[in-house]
Amino acid sequence: MSVLTRMYRGETHFDFVGAARKTLIVSAGLIVLSLLLLLIRPLNLSIDFTGGVIVTVENQSDVDIADVRAALGDIGQAGARVQLTGEGFILIQTEALDAAAQDELIVVAASVGGTDVNAVTIDAVGPTFGAEVTRAAIQALVVFLFIVALFITWRFEWKMALAALAALFHDLIITAGLFAAFGFVVTPATVIALLTILGYSLYDTVVVFDKVDENVELMHDRYTYTEIVNASMNQVLMRSINTSLTSLIPVGSLLLVGSFAFGAHTLREFALALFIGIAIGTYSSIFVAAPLLAFWKEREEDWVVARKRAMRRRGGDASLVVGDDVRPMAETVPAAPSVPTASSGAAARAPRKRKKRR
Amino acid sequence: MNRKKALITLLVTLAIAWGSIGAMLLAGWAPKLGLDLQGGFAVVLVGPEGTDTDTLDTAVEIMRRRIEELGSVQEPEISVQGERSIVVQLPGVDDRERALQAVGTTGELSFRPVLGLVPQSPALTDPEGDHPDNLDPVTGLSHPDDVNAAIAYLPSEDGFSVYVVGPAFLTGSDMKGGRAQFSGTGGHGGAGGWVVVPEFTDEGGEKFRLATGELASYPVGSPQRQLAIVVDGVVGSAPEVAAGVSPDEGLDPNQVVITIGSSEEPQAESEDLAAILNYGALPTTFERERVESVSASLGSDSLKAGLIAGLIGLALVTIYMIIYYRVLGVIAMVGLTVFGSLLIGAIILLGEFQGTTLTLAGVTGIIVSIGITLDSYIVYFERVKEEFHTGRPLRPSIDHAYPGAFSTILKGDTVTFLAAILLYLLAIGPVKGFALTLGIATLVDVFVSYFYTRPGTWLVAHSPLGDGGWFTIRGAMGRSSRSATPTEPVEVSS
Description:
The complex is a heterodimer. By secondary structure, chain A is α+β, with helices and mostly antiparallel strands. Chain A folds into 2 domains: about 5-45 and about 130-305, Multidrug efflux transporter AcrB transmembrane fold, CATH 1.20.1640; about 50-125, Alpha-Beta Plaits. Chain A is about 70% helix and about 5% strand. Chain A contains 13 helices and 6 strands. Chain A has helices at about 5-10, 15-40, 45-50, 65-75, 100-115, 125-155, 160-180, 190-220, 225-260, 265-300, 300-315, 325-330, 340-355, and strands spanning about 45, 50-60, 80-85, 90-95, 120-125, 185. In chain A, the strands form 2 sheets. Chain A has a 4-stranded antiparallel beta sheet with strand order 3-4-2-5. Chain A has a two-stranded parallel ribbon with strand order 1-6. In chain A, a hairpin with a 4-residue loop joins strand 3 and strand 4. The longest helix of chain A is centred in the last third of the chain and has 36 residues, at about 225-260. Chain A is elongated. Chain B is an alpha+beta fold. Chain B folds into 3 domains: about 5-35 and about 300-494, Multidrug efflux transporter AcrB transmembrane domain (Multidrug efflux transporter AcrB transmembrane fold), CATH 1.20.1640.10; about 40-95, Alpha-Beta Plaits (2-Layer Sandwich), CATH 3.30.70; about 110-280, Gyrase A, domain 2. Helix content of chain B is about 50%, strand content about 15%. In chain B, the strands form 3 sheets. In chain B, strands 4, 5, 6, 7, 10 and 11 form a 6-stranded antiparallel beta sheet that branches. In chain B, helix 3 (about 55-70) crosses helix 7 and helix 11 (about 395-425) packs antiparallel against helix 12. The longest helix of chain B has about 35 residues, at about 395-425.
């Protein structure tokens, strides 16, 4: 039977925790790479954070960049960044300007583009406002992380909270690294996207942990923690994949539409960050948060005992190291958690009927 | 759960969701669009260091008044954000110059002698008389107000009477500010009460002494003994110079208090007056920290792009969900219309009663919430499959899966809701709009899951679409053979 069919039927027995020994190395590598990238090529912050002026005007007179530069030079704005968009707009970006200089810039832009002053779109941000936006965003982030950690600790336990936060930082750093690598502009929209990613990543992790928590109740006397985590992740695997797909599809269409429609350039940056982030977030809740938790919990005294007991019962090697049991363990991973409840009846019934048929 | 209960719950939910949105649309209500979607003009103004909240509130009031005078603005949105920023959003405004002028400068504060107090502008009661030139033809009031005019007709704050005032004795630059305080003896009629203590610059104090001396020469009780405190062409207060003040000496500017007359809320009134004095005394105009104008066409392009993206995404998701979950996919997609109706309904209501606008960030929040609500279905459906695979029959699986699924959904939504609340409270700018729709979405999601998905799925399970061929719940279970015919050996499927 193909892997896809088994996934559809919820019959997979992937050894996620075992595989995570390798994937965690990849993740760690990506994090280091991202941090290096961020050092070498700092994030390309939009004027919302740094302060500055962006003027957009329709290019009705069909001028070229040199004409615009010449006109800007006359008002002492020779250093401005000028861009002609494919849709026939002139984009001019300068440093932060005072009110009078902004007005001057608008008049020049209107005369260069051949439009009315009121048809000029301007976005001027003072450096103080940008700093305040950044400060507010960081403050929100820190408080958010703190409260989420408290919530997970309260609902589950503190080790899960730390594992979830680790996955979160993993997502954030790698997404930021990608933005640095490609020089994408970081706008308030991207910050929103990052925060959404945090939400998604956490939501995903909470779903996995919820399952683990539930399965620990049902299976703790017969299986090791790693096995329980593996079983839980196999159970939520299709949910993770489906949720990611159904989230990625709308975001993907946002990305697609945003790339074609000029007015939607904010949408495009937003969608890009979301797209990358959701994908990484799904990955991290499976390959970072849960395995970290498994490695950690296996070292707890109770679970060391549980492991020895489980191994003894199966006649296996009690001194097995965490995650080493890739193949044999895969078979011992239970298909469903409800061992003591539902399946007992069915399991007992099935052989009996089989006999009858023979 | 029985059929009757499930049916009633489902019908009530559908009636609430679809009925309310239908009623709102019939009533002609629609989400109020933000600046970035319909075009317009936004300014962020930052007051000088140390500007207090009351002063900012006064500034907001004054700006609102001025903008309303501009006309043609649909719904100005002016609010204090952060510590000393004022965000002014003027959707639909395209006259940049006038809008900037209206919000860019502080109101002009002046202390002027009252020449008379009348119920209606003298220009209206006596059109033939000798009047200043700058009168508004309809109201007969001076507009724009010139603080140095020999005579001006200015409205009182409540708008019920008109003050006739002379040229200003002193203006905002002569002031340091003012503060409201409770005085044991300084109140109305010598009893304790709230007073306002104005603070003058040295030069302003001297002007004030001369002015009050001049006014003190009029008899007690005469309107001419009153000193009008004017902000932006409106008389905010007109205290009378107390009896016993010598016309030769005037009032000592360092000892003067303005008592609040008989008033129902003397504290609020004195604080208002102090704020006016502080505001008028602001040394500079507010800094324009951010100026943003969006042309109307750019705004509608963004809206269109967002809507198209939403529709394409929705269509693709529908196809995927129906192929994967068969009839359950249909339940999810109908549920999405319930979710969408409630979410948009909430946004419309907020716009109607709170003036909240739907921004581009809000639209993206909605698109993101599609993923969040679909996840709730997926969590539930996957759990049903799981239960079913343990050998439980189909209908009990559906009942048995719900509590666990709902608990997961609740936890996930709680985390997202927390995030949304924090973002809304702490962030500024576009993030706020995003957080708002996201927060509402998580609440709606929990509601829909409990009052729509649960009874809806139950009813479908107990209909011909529950157990049967490809397009049924059984069809979506994947491993149908195992529990449908328990005679098959388990080993066959591995």
